[in-house]
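Spend some time on the protein that follows and explain the fold to me:
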Amino acid sequence: MAEAADFQGTSASPARRWLRRAGALLTGAPLLAGLLQLPVAAPAQAASSGTVSVSLDSLAPSAPTDGDTLTVSGTVTNNGKQAVTDAHVGLQVGPRLTTRSDIDSVARHSDDPQGSTGSEVGDKYEEKFDKLAPGVAQHFSISVPVDKLGLDDDGVYEFGVALSGETSAQPWPRVLGIQRTFLPWQPSDADTKTKTTFLWPLLSTVHMTAKTGAGDLQTPEFLNDDLAKDLAPGGRLAQMVDLGKDLDVTWVIDPDLLASVDAMAVGNYRLQAADGTSTPGPREHQAVAKQWLAALQKAVAGKEVVALPFADPDLASLAHNGTSVTGSLSHLKDATDVAATTVKTVLHVTPSTDFAWPVDGAVDRSIMKVATSAGADRVIARSDSLQETAGLPYTPSAARPVGGGTTAVVADSRLSTAFEGDLSKAGSATLAVQRFLAQSLEVNSQTDKQRSILVAPQRMPTASQAQAMAAAVKALQGGTWTQSQGLTATAKDKPDPAATTRIPSASAYPSSLRRQDLPRTAFEQIARTQAKLDNFRVILSDQSRVVTPFGRAINRDMSTSWRGHRGAAEDYRDGVEDWLDELADQVKLIDKSETKLSGRSATIPVTVQNNLVQPVGHLVLRLESTMPTRLEIGGKAYYEQPVEISGGHSQSVKFTTSANANGRVAVIAQLYTEDGRKYGEPVTFDVKVTEVTPTVMLVIGGGVLLLVLAGFRMYTQRKRAAARQPEDGGPGTAAEDPDEPGNPGAPEGRLPQESDSGSGAGDPEQPSDPAPDTAPESADPSGTGERVDR
């Protein structure tokens, strides 16, 4: 049984089968029973388990030509529990693959040890290991002249790196681990070369908030400091620029990224804190941002640059959930208009802005309609969305006229998705590069007809993905079957008449992508924020201080980068709206308490406060009486006055009122913009009306006069009494008037001044001064009410 499993595809001879049967009978029934209990498929299971993993870390050159020496290096790791002995790593060259599907099939089973890739190149080109201990990785490196590989016709060959060995449980040589990849073979220039466009996306997530400082520089506030990490040497964006500068690619840039880096480069940016405050950004990051921008300016000089709409709006979400919300499409137009200006200002190049790029190149009819609504007449789609239906035996050119003057530029899905996934390990990156090159060569081999092929990779590749992409593009640039071409030229190339131009319906849109769409509520909130901004901007003397940061923040609300981060997207939208509310509330009416109005007419002041740093105007303050039959404002139910206030000041606006009857009246103060829209919250307060008649005034005046006369009489009486009293104080010197102080008939011992005080028991009662008919006015405050100007 063991001998039969020595090599796959061989069978034991009849003599050997007879000997095994005889041996089994001689061992006796107990041994036979024990053998029958063993799993017959054990050797096959052991082989398919992949006892040893093989990592192909480097294959150079990626696309060899005549005279080259191919160097293959990597590691082998024993994943089993038993040591592997008598092991060696060998190279296998399989058959030439003739279709793109063949390449896909090999890639799906690239590490399956069952089945042979092909014969080994030879023991001269192998690396041996006496022993591979469990869990231990061993490095290998093999170099072989290309002419020893047996490559014949041009094309793509299956290429394998296999480890063979044996274990104590299965002491026969067999393949314990393998890694299959591809070897593109095009030693001389192809008769017809494929024109290849490779997009180099320079995009990032949202970094800037809507908040800016109150100074002239309007210091920006960032969500966090993640952007600085990406810009620093070794960071993702730093590597994208460093790698892309030497590549013949079309740069696809989000202007928001440039604006964010430029704001950081100016310095004094701030970072949002969890408690709602902000802290200064590190000063050293200013130099990092400046260095990155300078490197990018050099990298894109002379290259084609495509600018996406500002903040890379999510076209699919807008098409599926935003078009029914009024004003949503206008944001896409604004984002497109500002894109060219931003790129030209920061990079000093004029970009193309007539390309739209839906996420993953997935399109349907509604997406195409939205994508072209802002002026873009070329939409970057992908072949797994715009699938071929005519059964073409080759991959058609990218350009497809889809009607209405719109061109769909269709990226090849296999090439565009070649660098997705985790490529942080060298083995994964090498496989991705070889598979990409294999597919590219196979496309060129399909027909003698020259075609234009577009590669549109993921929007935000990681650093390791970018490195793999750069390696593949370099191999293409130095290869023999392609030639580089810009995106604009590819879009203008003559389309294949047999290629599909039918845009799929909405039902064909991938459900996995639809689940990540921004919901309708997001666009409703954006519309609400825009309405508040429109209401706020009209009162400002310098609208740009608010319109620009909030306009760009609203663009960021719709960014494609929010896909898969719905909670963070909601928080960002809430932050934009809350900050706008806070700013708008800096211009407001000051609350008033109850106002007391005594008389037929008076002036009521209402105070407007402006805590903004800039003056505000174009405002109207309306004061309205809820009961104009009792209280009129300016002779009618309400009255309006224009308001203009300097920054950081308050202004008191006075309204003339007239009362027609007594009682309490509710009065409403409300600010309006000049176009008649309410601004801010109203202030309601009560006016208590007390109408004073002429008769009451006459009575009050008479009472006051009596008080004055009584006081004068008392003064003259006391003066006469003092003059009549003798100097020694004896009796008989004063006049004999019994009513005057000092009369002998008065009680003994009574001082003259005591006649003004209350009398004791038995004293004759003094006539009192007449009581005033109106209580004296108190100097204390009149309570909670406010006094008004009379």
Q: What stands out?
A: The chain is about 30% helix and 25% strand. The first strand starts at residue 52 and ends at 60. The longest helix spans residues 694-724. Residues 1-49, 727-790 have pLDDT under 50 and may be disordered.
